[in-house]
Task: structure prediction
Amino acid sequence: MRYFLLAVAMAGLAIPACKRSMAPLSEPRDFTKLTWQADTLFEPEMHDSQVMMESIWGSSTQDIYTVGHSSGLSDMWYYDGTSWQLVDLYSYGITIGLDGEVFGFSADNVWAVGNKPMRNSNPPPDYVFYSVIIHYDGTKWEYSLKDTSGRMLNSVWGAAPDDIWAGGEYHTLYHYDGVQWKREYLYYDFPPNDHISITFIGGRPGLGAYIIVLLYPATEDQSYRFYLFKYVNTSWRLVPGVNTYRTLAGIWASPSGKAYFGGYGLNKLDGGEFKNIYGPISVTSVYGLD
Result:
């Protein structure tokens, strides 16, 4: 029997397991028998009126991070198995917005992506948001990348500590080889002047990596479109037939090599065939066991 966790647009924060775990579960659990609990993240001293977490990852049930947007300064929280605690990034000299994702390989190797505003030398707009990546080594958080030529980062995922991808707005894409981050590109003939947004990156070690691209048209008489890319050999290639106005969101690749995507329902890529297998409903994230 197969089980999927579908995050369908909902309020609150439910923690059934760690997001995008690198290690398989030793004993598959019956999710129909789990008790779900909604946790509230609130820090009075931060003067938050709105907290919306966008991403969650953990190395164990006692080591979980979540990041996202807040109206105050509480962009990252940490769960130690008992309670959620605000991560004071400012104490490490880090002042960024964490509207992207958090992902890691162990308790002492965690990454998070986001942005930092700077005044635009050629307005409008008056400000732009450049690329920022931070890293936790088990002791402290520190900047790993600050690139004013890149833009806001949305997603981060890696097959190994020396093979990590991060992507975001305006065709911003980076790869980490274990030593440094390098700017990369999707070599595809997108329509000129359109806004290219890399919204999700995901996959499974040894079985491939995927990128979801949202294309905002330059003119109002055209609709936005979603593209799906797969990393093959040494380059990103468009998955044939996946060029759609229907939303794509979230990526999970199974051990058997199938890839599942949320968005406009639950979608599956099996071999070269991409099809909707459940819906239409709004699915923001997907994770499974097989």
Summary: Residues 214 and 226 are 5 Å apart (CA to CA).
